[in-house]
Design brief:
By secondary structure, the protein is of the alpha+beta class. Helix content is 41%, strand content 18%. The strands form four sheets. It has an eight-stranded antiparallel β-sheet with strand order 6-5-4-3-11-12-13-14.
């Protein structure tokens, strides 16, 4: 069989199987343009949290760590299960935690301690030193009532319904919730159909969903990301399915464009069509010319979203890079319990900068600042000192430029800046190392927000650029972005629908032809027997 024949057969059969999936991807993409997957945003979390009140706090940070043992950190959450970790000595001290924060837990000041072995966190109350080992239904209900009240929702506490403890459901499949599993779920039974999820580890509300959000996401993210719970909770299975379907989809789009090229006849005689198709096939051909390339780039960039073969390195700073600015690992003994912070402070993370101890305080508006753990003064690292420290990030390379960004650039940006997921201003420093590394530094806290290599920046265009059309000049000119994306999506949808119809007709035609051929063969056989 010739290669051309194999190409035609692959496109025919793969097209029949995948065009329906393409239609679902395009249509669900419309919903995802305007409705995100349910999450508890930073703004929502801060709005529903109780301001820090340390009037009853007695326990120093180092004393809180001393209350914990290795045996307190033996579980690691996964979407499909809770893993049990091995520890050398369950009764031994935990050593240095990876992070600690002060917050109000169940209306009491408390430390939330994260260990360095990746286990789920523990809460130590700062008033009497007790360790929160289990969150009861009553405690979770109180947290829900308090959160809803502070968020300004009109909720009848008597109408709040406890729906049980769940490990994962359709709206809690995100890996970001792994450290809080299992989750206690409550339906508020309000007009918006709100459901809240409470962490079984910290007693905090960690996710909220509303009825309209759930309905729209059932037509959006659940379809587009292939997110049914039974698949998504198994990470490797989900990755395998998405990679396989996207990979075959890329081959299908390439084969369609290639066949279109092969079928074009530029030497056709006058009066003869250059395309050997009529009717619906002709429409399929020309819609493929118009929208086939964007269909290919969307499917390809969807595959890139899975980061196949780990082509895109992490943009998080590693431990050594973080230590350049911190100056040392977390040292709880250097922190004293503060008398208090500003009235709107929500949480305070134990933090080091240049070897000095600070509390990194976040207030209700989402603003973050440093408070010295020694003299309680508010401090702000100088940009000059941060740039000087940045030279140690890559000792074998030269710092070639540094600048303060008050607006996002093409590689450090947020499509929802109101959520403050990526702070501004930032200091951007560039190096001349082989990877052409850039670092974005937060001058408010003296931390690395993000690192970016040449590979990251290329990958940004292959994924975000091609898939979401995150071209900053276009995104800033909405609704131009909406018009472009919707037009291209409609074109891809039409192309895919025509492909389904054409494929179905071909199947019916082949089935009818086979039935007719079988009938003629039977007639011949009967005729031969009769003559004999």
């Amino acid at each position: 069989m010739s290669f051309k024949r194999q190409l035609y057969l692959f496109h025919r059969w793969a097209g029949i199987a995948l065009c329906l999936l393409f239609v679902l991807w395009f249509v669900s993409g419309f919903f995802m343009m305007y409705v995100g997957f349910p999450e508890l945003t930073q703004r929502e979390r801060l709005a529903g949290s109780m301001p820090l009140d340390l009037t009853t706090a007695r326990l120093q940070p180092a004393e809180a760590v001393a209350r914990l043992r290795q045996g307190d950190f033996v579980t690691r959450g996964r979407q499909s299960r809770i893993e049990t970790l091995d520890v050398s000595d369950p009764a031994a001290p935990i050593g240095t935690p990876s992070s600690m924060r002060l917050a109000m837990i169940l209306r009491r000041p408390a430390y939330v301690v994260h260990p360095d072995n990746g286990a789920q966190p523990r809460v130590v109350f700062a008033d009497d030193g007790t360790v929160l080992r289990e969150v009861s239904e009553e405690q979770a209900r109180a947290a829900v009532i308090d959160f809803a009240g502070r968020s300004g929702w009109r909720v009848d506490p008597a109408g709040i319904e406890y729906e049980g403890t769940i490990h994962v459901d359709q709206w809690s499949v995100s890996a970001a919730l792994d450290e809080h599993r299992p989750l206690l779920r409550f339906a508020l039974n309000d007009d918006a159909g709100t459901v809240l999820y409470v962490s079984s580890r910290t007693g905090e509300v960690v996710r909220d969903t509303q009825r309209l959000e759930r309905v729209l996401n059932s037509f959006g993210a659940v379809i587009h990301w292939i997110y049914p719970t039974i698949i998504r909770k198994h990470q490797l299975l989900w990755e395998w399915i998405v990679n396989l379907l996207s990979g075959v989809g890329v081959l299908l789009a390439i084969s369609g464009l290639w066949i279109g090229w092969l079928r074009w006849n530029p030497r056709a005689r006058p009066g003869k069509p250059r395309v050997p198709y009529r009717g619906l096939m002709r429409w399929h051909y020309f819609s493929g010319i118009a929208f086939g390339v964007v269909t290919l780039t969307w499917i390809f960039s969807g595959l890139m979203s899975m980061n196949p073969l780990k082509l895109n390195p992490s943009q998080r700073p590693d431990t050594a890079e973080s230590l350049v600015f911190a100056g040392k690992s977390l040292t709880p003994t250097e922190f004293e319990l503060p008398v208090g912070f500003a009235a709107d402070a929500i949480e305070a993370v134990l933090h080091h900068y240049a070897g000095q101890a600070f509390y990194r305080v976040t207030d209700r508006t989402g603003s973050t600042y440093l408070v010295s753990a020694n003299d309680r003064a508010v401090r702000r690292p100088s940009v000059k000192s941060m740039i000087e420290r940045a030279t140690a990030l890559l000792p074998d390379a030269h710092l070639i430029s540094s600048e303060i960004l008050t607006e996002y650039d093409d590689y450090y940006y947020s499509r929802r800046p109101e959520r403050r997921a990526k702070p501004l201003p930032v200091v951007r420093v560039r190096f001349d190392d082989p990877d052409h590394t850039w670092f974005y530094l937060n001058p408010a806290t003296g931390e690395i927000v993000e690192r970016s290599t040449r590979t990251n920046r290329i990958y940004r265009w292959l994924y975000n650029g091609l898939h979401s059309f995150d071209f900053w000049w276009l995104w800033q000119r909405r609704p131009l972005w909406d018009i472009v994306v919707i037009t291209l999506s409609l074109g891809g949808t039409v192309l895919s629908i025509i492909g389904i119809v054409v494929g179905w007709r071909r199947l019916r035609f082949r089935a009818t032809r086979r039935a007719a051929l079988a009938g003629r063969n039977r007639e011949r056989a009967v005729s031969s027997v009769t003559k004999a």
